[in-house]
Amino acid sequence: MRRCLIAFVCAALPAAAAVGVAQPRGPAGVEVGSLDRSADPCVDFYQFACGGWMAANPLPADRQQWGRPQEVRDRNDAILRRILERRSASGDLAKAIDYYAACLDTRAIDAKGLAPLRPDLRRIDHLRDTRALADLLAHLHTVAAANPPSGLAATSTFPFFQLVARSDPTRAIDQIAWARPDALGLPDREYYTGTDDRSVKLRAAYRNHVARMLELSGMTPAESARAADAVLRIETRLAMVLLDRAAVRDPNALTNPRTFAELQALTPHFDWKRYVQARRAPPFERLNVSQPTFLAEVDRVLADTRIGDIRSYLRWHLLHSAATMLPTVFGEAEFAFFSRALLGQQEPQPRWRLCLAQTDEHLGDALGKAFVEDAFRPAAKADILAMVGRLKAALREDIQRAAWMGDETRRAALQKLDAIENRIGYPDTWREYTSLQISRADAYGNLQRVRAAENGRDLSHIGHQTDLTDWLVTPPTVNAAYISNRNTILFPAGILQPPYYEAARDAAVNYGAAGAFIGHELTHGFDDSGRKFDANGNVRDWWTAADAKRFDERASCVASQYSEYVVAGDTHINGRLTLGENTADNGGLRLALMAYLAGPGPGATTAIDGLTPEQRVFVGYGQMYCATATPEYERAQTRTNSHAANRYRVNGVVSNMPEFQRAFACKADAPMVRANACRVW
What we know:
681 residues; alpha+beta; Collagenase (Catalytic Domain); four-stranded mixed sheet; 27 helices; 12 strands; globular
């Protein structure tokens, strides 16, 4: 399990990227042009830190959201694009270049029409009963389902369920099989269960989109309409039994060990032995079934649903998973629903961005190695490691001073802190793609082959020990993470760029930005979910009952605070869904300030850009989250994402900090000073 810093990468929603307006820098590195000095920081600190940026960066028509992560990603993309548009290269980089070139060749893709998809469409059409479903699903889960190597990116597209290799919840050093839910075309169960007008209209639009895609694949209008109704019925049934996103944050809820025989008994209408053999997975006698009630409902769907309806469901998911490499009309239809109707994006992004993202996703180490050589210096890695050391020291001090925590729990917490592994910049060993075949003339075939390779690589880990050196993201990724079942913090080279980190910048600003996100990831090890993993990444309760109760009381304060916030004028944040990220935001900034004051801070007393050192720490933090977004995007994120809206990631945090009140001399009744401030760490 992972906890992420930036919402757009963790969300099951498309990421955005665009070219923004550069802001003037002051001597300290604060973006003085991003400030709104007419705003009172004690009334609305987000507006003070970001008002100038928002005024200079109206949302582009081809974006759902535009903010600091997208700025960084845009600069990274420019580097990656130069790499991929080289005329020649050798080895794995040549394969990445060929994959990108084939993806860009829409003329060739359009000329082939549906021919590349015909064999799989025929496989689906020939399905006569559910007894043969095991072989068909095994094939689709191998070549037509995305289980990307990046642990922080992409939405998977497995019909009905996933079978993957993941850490044993109670013995994380071992990789075992996991059977877990998938099956839905919409981003979340709430889209199927919501009764408000907006949800009803979105479901109708989704049903019409499914019908459109099926008609494009060769069905008559009447056939596609009936088939779309069947797809929505099946997905709604499965959505109804899914745990909600707040519930699945509890690792105990997902820890359900079963024997292979028990798995088969749970789903008597599906032949698991045949499926596992067809997937060419290693044999196994035990696994984890993350949501048994979901698999039981899958079995009931197989038992009482017309086989023609199941074929329609599989056909839709095949088209959805393949749309990027199908003729242009399919991509246009997908954009019209998933980007415009669902998220408010008015214009599509250029094709090269999509192709670049896919290349990074599927051949990330080949591309990432070249990126690191261009954009990340050894000195930056050393500097970040030094900051990590200071942030860990701050967290150690915080744990030692926590009066609400008993000695037994405190010792275990310090043991876990000492065991946290650091992954900075890029892996020590680069993955090779020697056996992967890529052709400039076969975009769809390339997609199938990279998926098959990654899905096969994933399943091959069953029965083996976890490779703790294996990175779960590609080096250009603009995000950071805490990996609970590895007790590891992860900072790719892609995010160690301005405005998050800049070597020559004032230390106060660097600690407010990079220091806060380091503290954020460290705090995830001790949030409401992360605290349920021990120093070795095992799901284990190492808390005394009294300390767990006191933790929950403090965490409930945070959950209640954020549940008061409203986005897009009408949608409340789910304080329980966002509790882990909010806890990490609050802890991360406090730790960053502690580390700054214990390190470079004491010698820095001069105001720069009109801001004291402590004020610059806070501004450095606030300016990480400057963003604009469509109302549709904000509502969708609030429904599905574990991060609060950016405004509240800033204002919610500083309003809990007496240090902020002192730094800006805020009155006790100011909006940025909570009378009942919340604090976990």
